[in-house]
Specification:
Strand order of the largest sheet: 2-7-1-8-9
Number of helices: 7
Helix content: 40-55%
Order of helices and strands: EHEEEHEEHEHEHHEH
Bound molecules: guanosine-5'-monophosphate
Distance between the termini: 13 Å
Number of strands: 9
Structural class: alpha/beta
Radius of gyration: 16 Å
Largest sheet: 5 strands, parallel
């Protein structure tokens, strides 16, 4: 199988709404499956407390983002209604695959669909909260956004939920341990399918 990322190994994309609990699941998944490595996106948003440059994101300015966009460094990117842009650097995928690992991408649904369309072998997994109310509760409990931005994220989440069926797998994250078992099962099955 040929691939635009230069590898026969898959690229895993975890997507879903903001507040579905993707981040927690991904951290746990990375701890369980050492063959995976998180592709660190570049973003123009402010760094939150506890976040580190190069770990959660590469935090860059609007000008730097424009430059990288102009020189074709992004595999995909998104611009959110509240202004921030985030994108997957091709160099991150190359770095991970060059080290013999399998990239794990955390993307909102539009970017995930773009990767599904352009990267052969991409495996896309949509994570959702058990209800919209629970999604809202989790987003508010995180309390990292302003009230206005939470409302915008919730509006977007409504729209994104209607796209869930477009992805290869769907996981309802009602209980994080059960959701992790499901996610790990999907990833292991796909990795075994391509193992030599
Ligand atoms: P946050 O600002 O809360 O870290 O992330 C908001 C959303 O952006 C999350 O749903 C996350 O999956 C998504 N996201 C993070 N990096 C990227 C990226 O490089 N591309 C796309 N399309 N979405 C991203």
């Amino acid at each position: 199988m040929g691939s635009s990322t230069g590898s026969d190994l898959p690229v895993f994309v975890v997507t879903g709404t903001s507040g579905a609990g993707k981040g927690t699941l991904e951290k746990a998944l990375l701890a369980q499956i050492p063959e995976l490595a998180l592709a660190v996106s570049a973003t123009t948003r402010e760094r939150r407390d506890g976040e580190e440059d190069g770990r959660e994101y590469w935090f860059i300015s609007d000008e730097e983002f424009d430059e990288k966009l102009g020189s074709g460094e992004f595999l995909e990117y998104v611009e959110f209604p509240w202004g921030q842009r985030s994108g997957t650097l091709r160099s991150e995928i190359a770095r991970i695959q060059g080290g013999g690992k399998v990239p794990l991408l955390d993307l909102e649904p539009q970017g995930a669909l773009e990767v599904k369309r352009t990267v052969p072998g991409a495996v896309t997994i949509f994570v959702e909260a058990p209800s919209f109310e629970e999604n809202e509760r989790r987003l508010r409990a995180r309390a990292t956004e302003s009230e206005g931005e939470i409302e915008e994220r919730l509006d977007l989440a409504r729209e994104q939920l209607s796209q869930a069926g477009a992805f290869d797998y769907q996981i309802v994250n009602a209980d994080v341990d059960l959701a992790l078992v499901e996610l790990e099962g999907i990833v292991r099955k796909c990795l075994e399918a391509v193992a030599p």
